[in-house]
Amino acid sequence: xxxxxxxxxxxxxxxxxxxxxxxxxxxxxxxxxxxxxxxxxxxxxxxxxxxxxxxxxxxxxxxxxxxxxxxxxxxxxxxxxxxxxxxxxxxxxxxxxxxxxxxxxxxxxxxxxxxxxxxxxxxxxxxxxxxxxxxxxxxxxxxxxxxxxxxxxxxxxxxxxxxxxxxxxxxxxxxxxxxxxxxxxxxxxxxxxxxxxxxxxxxxxxxxxxxxxxxxxxxxxxxxxxxxxxxxxxxxxxxxxxxxxxxxxxxxxxxxxxxxxxxxxxxxxxxxxxxxxxxxxxxxxxxxxxxxxxxxxxxxxxxxxxxxxxxxxxxxxxxxxxxxxxxxxxxxxxxxxxxxxxxxxxxxxxxxxxxxxxxxxxxxxxxxxxxxxxxxxxxxxxxxxxxxxxxxxxxxxxxxxxxxxxxxxxxxxxxxxxxxxxxxxxxxxxxxxxxxxxxxxxxxxxxxxxxxxxxxxxxxxxxxxxxxxxxxxxxxxxxxxxxxxxxxxxxxxxxxxxxxxxxxxxxxxxxxx
Length: 513
Prior knowledge:
Elements: E1 2-11, E2 14-25, E3 30-34, H1 39-42, H2 44-54, E4 63-69, H3 81-91, E5 103-105, E6 108-109, E7 115-116, H4 121-130, E8 135-139, H5 143-146, E9 153-157, H6 160-167, H7 186-189, H8 201-213, E10 217-220, H9 227-232, H10 234-237, H11 243-255, E11 271-272, H12 280-284, E12 285-286, E13 291-292, H13 294-297, E14 302-306, H14 313-317, H15 320-325, E15 327-332, E16 335-340, E17 344-349, H16 367-374, H17 379-383, E18 387-390, H18 396-401, H19 408-425, H20 439-445, H21 450-462, H22 467-483, H23 491-512
Parallel strand pairs: 3-4, 5-8, 8-9, 10-17, 10-18, 11-14, 14-17
Antiparallel strand pairs: 1-2, 2-4, 6-7, 12-13, 15-16
Helix pairs in contact: 2-3, 8-19, 8-22, 21-23, 22-23
């Protein structure tokens, strides 16, 4: 007999439909599997055969052929164990349900018949809904990931025997109560706040502007001046996640196996801070079958690179495509994988090996040492960093005053108002933030009056901006205007935007100017 059941495979971070076909016929007893399978999937025949035996099923001594279609997609992982077992039982006549077309099955089988969790459960449920399926059978530990998706029933399984009893008209899983999942608020999540940081008004303003428009920012200055403190508090002033963002971020972490029963979804913005010794493969994502790297894990949140100049040059240059396009493509001989990479880059570095340049009363580095140190950051990467904020040493008086700065909540309220203006402006487009605008969008949304146009030309000439640098100044000015609730960009907005980029020329002007 022949049967087929539906499953979902994972390619990148997306789910793709896989049809599992089984044929049980007369002939020399055997178990063969085809369909461009990895070694993990090929091993399923031993796990499935033993799990069926220990679950009380006696498979007749016949020829069993399993095909996973389409054949041009490579199948990875152990999630096909459960659909293979159901397909065999259905073809052998041991499951009474003849119509399984509205169902999707996914899960790894233990030798005793238990259904074990698999990565990517959320992507599986989303793909199942997209394909019009009504029921998704998952391991019990993965069920809480899928219950947030509406219009599809997600059933958690403990054993293969439970599932077969259900399909044969026994246990009704739909009557089992749902475990509530509590979404924490931002206040419950973060244990740091901007009120903890005193002084540094320029860094505060630069950080607020960066977050309001999702502009990349670099903190540069002596060690111990608060660069890392500011970066770690960026998530506390970012707007709360929308449901769509929660699902997109959670999907990435689900594929990486970083969600659990206690944390079935990501309800806070990611903050990834890889060490400067990270390899390019771990940074961008990779492997024989590419998996998401730090760049993708930071999507929707913050990627913080502390001591930027200490990273390998090849690692830093990987940022070119993600910062420009919001995604990263990893190619292999069997296909290309596209991963999301829409994050806010926050970088921190010292201006020289000793950290005190350009204060020559303290800095003892030679000019060549300073140039070599700063030259580790290429001009293309600098052009992709919107804001360069210089930190200054904190005085003893500022340390001892003990006055608290403005709270994260107050800053976030202003940023959320600016985000509302951006949502209204870009309604009906694929643009989410000012930093995502392209050249045609700048002409449409960043129009200037004659006085402002002349002033911007002066900025362009005096700062020797590149074309990309010119666009960055205009985008930042648009964000500053949004923070003030202004529909038009004025000279003071352009002046502040230029000031937020001028530090770049102060440190790198001698190298690239």
